[in-house]
Automatic annotation (TrEMBL), chain A:
Alphabetically ordered keywords of this record: 4Fe-4S, Iron, Iron-sulfur, Metal-binding, Oxidoreductase, Repeat
Protein name (record): Anaerobic glycerol-3-phosphate dehydrogenase subunit C
NCBIfam families named among the record's database cross-references: glycerol3P_GlpC, PRK11168.1
Domain 4Fe-4S ferredoxin-type: start-end pairs: 28-92
Keyword Transmembrane: no
From TrEMBL, chain B:
Gene name, Swiss-Prot/TrEMBL: glpA
EC number: 1.1.5.3
Organism whose genome encodes this protein: Halapricum hydrolyticum
Official protein name in the record: Glycerol-3-phosphate dehydrogenase
Cofactor requirement: FMN; FAD
GO cellular component: a single term: glycerol-3-phosphate dehydrogenase (FAD) complex
Principal subcellular localisation of the protein: membrane
Length: 441, 563
């Protein structure tokens, strides 16, 4: 809307860039200011300059008038952990409010020629970077491991030199999958497993959203998932796909996220129509498709994709009698300490693993409690946020030190990077534990 | 005393407008008001800066006045005005012919107006009903009545006027058939908030008395046995928690009930109804009126049906029509105003009454009335209120770089700036540290302290000046902080009484919003206040057995310092 005080003629001007024009003020109606959100914010706990989620979300939105393009710069310090969104007892769409405010901030207030913007753009589009790196994994690993590279990365791009870049797998998961014979082989193995189990199970079909990390780095996690699911009679489809968009949301690049979301909804939407359920081993990927896509974009078929999207552990808990399967298991696994990722809590899967293995022979498992690791995807990869990231993680590091376990267990690849960085622990994914218990034993 | 003197009765927009105008012309003015400024209808209006479009078909004289004053107020009161623009929305059941009349009427009255298609209107206001046929754009806006009245009063004071709030006129002093002054009772209240002496009866004499008591003008007139036939007509307004619209939305049909939405600060205000009442102070406030309002408005903006309302309030219009006009429906009575010379009319000199009119035309009413008074008093001075900006609206340019200086979060800085206008720098440099006291409205300590400086312990007046406690939680999380700001200047007992008074006022309007989210808000407020401030009991009854704490500390082997 133009400013009529300057001219009395009507002259509509759309001041809002496409992706960030959402009016989220009506969502404020649900807020009763009970401050539950404030008590769970990991950033507010370590950074007293951070005004907290109640301000970032409902208060800031309510103070907004149409045409107010400026959002408070503190939204840049939000982790996008979504703990506030989960903690809210009234259903205030805090995650959505933060995402849109951040996108407005990045679009309209951030200097697009700055080092931070360039670095954030790289982090947000990690899928592209990972693809390049994994073309020549050994060389990439050697180059990224060099002290000189790290030094340059910090000086030029603002990546903290304290962190070491994750190694690229020598073969991507997709490479392995295709060598193995792709979807056809999976269908065959699943059919054999179903026969052995005496099931007909025509409908045991899942499409796998592997995302970036399980494809380029933690390929063992994806492979464990494949072997576990197939042994339970599920045939798996692994379609072409893009990054889920999580790092784009977290860096306020909603237009980039819309691009990947459109592609992913198209691909996985048709698989849903063909009777597939959707699973991911990374809780941030599954949360993006289940929660953030429908909250932020209006894409044909988006609700179907969201309602069929599951975390890989959650899906088995819902559809299989895992307790019965595990009763017979005798697992030879070192003592473990489980860390629930924040986005796992949003997915509602944080309790499943500890419950499932509570009585399984040979498993010693405790957990770190309700704490954020502090890395939060791309947050801890920013030099200026490194200290906050480590301070947030301190509580988790301490929990690991005190726990009897020797191996860490978590669903989230970024939590696992932080655990390795802060504790030196070896980190496993629940898929790997379940595979050991149910496939190998 | 050399200057001629005048008493103005009524601290609403008209009263403070007259006080300012006369003071600027060199008249020695005393304004008396029984409550705080805007206690009456001015504080209970829609907050709409009319373009006049609403009256463009049937009451063109009022429409022209509205448009002229609309332009002037944008200029002299820029910090009180938000130029949102407005739409007249035609729904399927509304008459095509009336739409044309409206469009033509606007143009006849020099109101810029433009026809919009349904698509254009929906693009501007996506929460309007998709059924709408078309719309007319007009330069409606929003205006903050509290800020406007306070600015007028401050300006009047700067020109030497005496402003007495909480001072009720108990009688008109009549000598030899001429009104020569007023008798007022200075009310007592929490702390020092009157300039007179509390509880004292004072007789104030002046060369002339102006009755600008609005809906109460009839009662004032009766004190001198004068018949002023003000027709008080009540109307309900409901405040929504958020702005569902950013423009004023009018229904394009003959003037009626429940047909305006005004985006006001952080809220949207729905209004209104029009029903004659006997007594402007004592009339029924019925939930059915609120329900009707929401139901009707939801036809234009369906989102309102389930949206959260914060409170509802009723205002009483001081309608007037010359004796013998005989209009039957109150909404048909002209919004024109009348300056009544009681010498000419009733043979009682010394008193002028001004009645009728619109909030938006307050300045013009004040000008006409001041012209009349100056004539009688032989004062030869021109009116300057249309040119001279109000305090707070003097200079827009100096504000641009002030945003970052006080370390405020950007939406808070923006709101502070909008509320304070050119006083932004002055006020914000006055408190350090300057935390946000009211989170919902982004009100800072500096603003609160500034308001306390001018109104003392009257926290309702602090509220009106700052908007503190007018947001989502209705004071649940800031009322006690406001009271705490009174300390150390005022003692604990005074602060407590001021808090109680603010709570009562906040509760009053919420009674008509207690369902859904606002009910749960009120419940949470109660629970928090009960459990942390003992407010479900007498909080001054401190019969805590402190010895028990001491003995427990000793039993636990811990140390105790005795408090």
């Amino acid at each position: 809307m133009s400013k009529p005080e300057e001219s009395e003629t009507f002259d509509p001007v759309d001041l809002f860039p496409e992706a960030t024009e959402m009016d989220l003020r009506p969502g404020v109606d649900k807020c009763d200011k009970n401050s539950n959100c404030e008590t769970v914010c990991p950033v507010a706990e370590v950074n007293e300059d951070f005004p907290g989620p109640k301000f970032q979300g409902p208060e800031q939105w309510r103070l907004t008038r149409k045409g107010d393009l400026e959002f408070d710069e503190s939204v840049d310090k939000c982790l996008n952990c979504m703990r506030c969104d989960t903690a809210c007892t009234n259903g205030v769409p805090l995650g959505q409010m933060h995402n849109v405010a951040r996108a407005n901030y990045v679009d309209n207030q951030m200097n697009h020629a700055s080092r931070e913007f360039l670095r954030n753009k790289m982090l947000a589009n990690y899928g592209t970077l990972g693809k390049l790196g994994s073309m020549m994994p050994r060389i990439s690993n050697a180059v990224f491991g060099l002290g000189a590279t790290r030094w340059l990365n910090e000086k030029l791009l603002g990546f903290p030199s304290e962190r070491s870049f994750p190694d690229f797998a020598t073969q991507t998961f997709r490479g392995w999958w295709s060598d193995r014979g792709g979807d056809a082989t999976s269908a065959e193995r699943a059919r054999e497993a179903r026969e052995a189990r005496g099931e007909d199970g025509e409908d045991k079909k899942v499409a796998f959203f592997h995302g970036c990390y399980a494809n380029y780095h933690q390929t063992e996690v994806a492979k464990s998932m494949v072997r576990l699911y197939e042994s339970l009679g599920y045939e798996i489809a692994v379609p072409e796909q893009s990054c889920c968009g999580t790092p784009m949301f977290a860096n306020g690049m909603l237009e980039d996220a819309r691009g990947v979301a459109e592609g992913n909804v198209d691909t996985f939407g048709s698989l849903v129509e063909d009777g597939y359920d959707l699973i991911a081993t990374c809780t941030s990927c599954s949360m993006a498709l289940r929660k953030e896509y429908p909250e932020l974009f209006d894409i044909d078929g988006i609700e179907d994709v969201a309602s069929h999207m599951f975390d890989a552990v959650e899906y088995l808990r819902v559809n299989e009698d895992l307790e019965a399967e595990l009763e017979a298991a005798d697992v030879d696994f070192p003592a473990m300490t489980y860390h629930a990722p924040c986005h796992g809590e949003v997915m509602g899967v944080e309790g499943i693993i500890t419950e499932l293995f509570a009585d399984v022979d040979g498993v010693e498992l405790d957990d770190t409690g309700d704490v954020c690791c502090g890395l939060a995807g791309t947050y801890g990869w920013k030099e200026e946020k490194y200290d906050d990231s480590m301070e947030i993680g301190a509580e988790m590091f301490e929990a690991f030190e005190e726990a009897p376990g020797e191996v860490a267990l978590t669903e989230c690849p970024m939590c696992s990077a932080q655990i390795e960085h802060g504790t030196g622990y070896e980190v496993k994914h629940p898929m790997q534990l379940l595979e050991t218990a149910l496939v190998e034993s | 005393m050399n200057n001629p003197s005048t008493i103005v009765i009524g601290g609403g927009a008209t009263g403070v407008g007259i006080a300012r105008d006369l003071a600027m012309r060199g008249v020695d003015v005393t304004l008396v008001e029984k409550g705080n400024l805007t206690h009456g209808t001015s504080g209970r209006m829609h907050g709409m800066l009319h373009s006049g479009g609403r009256y463009a078909v049937t009451d063109q004289h009022s429409a022209e006045d509205c448009m002229t004053e609309n332009r002037i107020l944008r200029d002299i009161a820029s910090h009180c005005v938000e130029m949102t623009g407005g739409l007249f929305v035609q729904m399927p059941e509304d008459d095509d012919e009336y739409f044309q009349q409206k469009l033509e009427g606007c143009l006849e009255c020099d109101i810029p107006a433009e026809e919009l298609t349904a698509e254009q209107a929906l693009e501007m206001e996506p929460y309007l009903s998709e059924d709408l046929e078309r719309a007319i754009w007009v330069p409606d806006g929003a205006i903050d009545p509290f800020r406007l009245c306070v600015a007028n009063a401050v300006s009047a004071e700067n020109h030497g006027a005496r402003i007495e709030t909480h001072s009720e006129v108990t009688d008109l002093l009549v000598e030899d058939g001429e009104v020569v002054g007023v008798e007022v009772e200075h009310k007592s209240g929490a702390g020092s908030r009157v300039h007179g002496n509390e509880g004292e009866i004072e007789e104030i004499y002046a060369d002339h008395v102006v009755n600008a008591a609005g809906a109460w003008a009839g009662q004032i007139g009766a004190m001198a046995d004068l018949d002023v036939e003000v027709i008080p007509a009540k109307g309900v307004m409901t405040i929504m928690n958020v702005r569902q619209v950013d423009m004023v939305i009018n229904r394009c049909k003959p003037r009626g009930n429940a047909d305006i939405i005004v985006p006001h600060e952080t809220t949207a205000i729905l209004g209104t109804t029009d029903e004659e009442v006997e007594d402007p102070e004592d009339f029924p406030e019925e939930q059915a009126e609120v329900d009707f309002l929401i139901e009707e408005m939801s036809k234009m903006a369906p989102i309102l049906e389930d949206a959260r309302t914060l409170r509802s309030y009723w205002g009483v219009r001081p309608l007037y029509e010359p004796p013998g006009t005989g209009t039957e429906e109150t909404e048909q009575i002209t919004r024109n105003y009348f300056v009544l010379d009681h010498d000419e009319r009733d043979g009682t000199p010394g008193l002028t009454t001004v009645v009728g009119g619109k909030f938006v035309t307050y300045r013009k009413m004040a000008e006409d009335c001041a012209d009349h008074v100056c004539d009688l008093l032989g004062v030869d001075a021109e009116c300057r209120t249309a040119e001279e900006p109000l305090p707070g609206s003097e200079d827009d340019a100096v504000l641009s770089d002030a945003m970052d200086r006080y370390g405020l979060r950007s939406p808070v800085a923006r709101r502070n700036k909008q509320r304070l206008g050119s006083r932004y720098d002055d006020v914000l440099s006055g408190a350090d540290p300057n935390p946000v006291v009211c989170d919902c409205e982004g009100v800072t300590r500096a603003e609160v302290q500034d308001a306390i400086e001018s109104v003392g312990t009257d926290l309702n007046a602090v509220r009106q000046r700052t908007r503190a406690s007018m947001g989502t939680c209705q004071g649940g999380t800031c009322a006690y902080r406001l009271a705490a700001e009174l300390h150390p200047e005022y003692d604990e007992e005074t602060a407590r009484a001021a808090l109680e008074e603010l709570y009562q006022e906040r509760w009053k309007g919420q009674r008509h919003a207690l369902w859904g989210e606002q009910l749960s808000q009120a419940t949470l407020n109660h629970a928090v206040h009960a459990s942390t401030m003992n407010r479900d009991r007498d909080p001054t009854d401190v019969s805590v057995d402190f010895d028990a704490f001491e003995s427990r500390a000793v039993a636990d082997g811990g140390e105790s310092d005795g408090d």
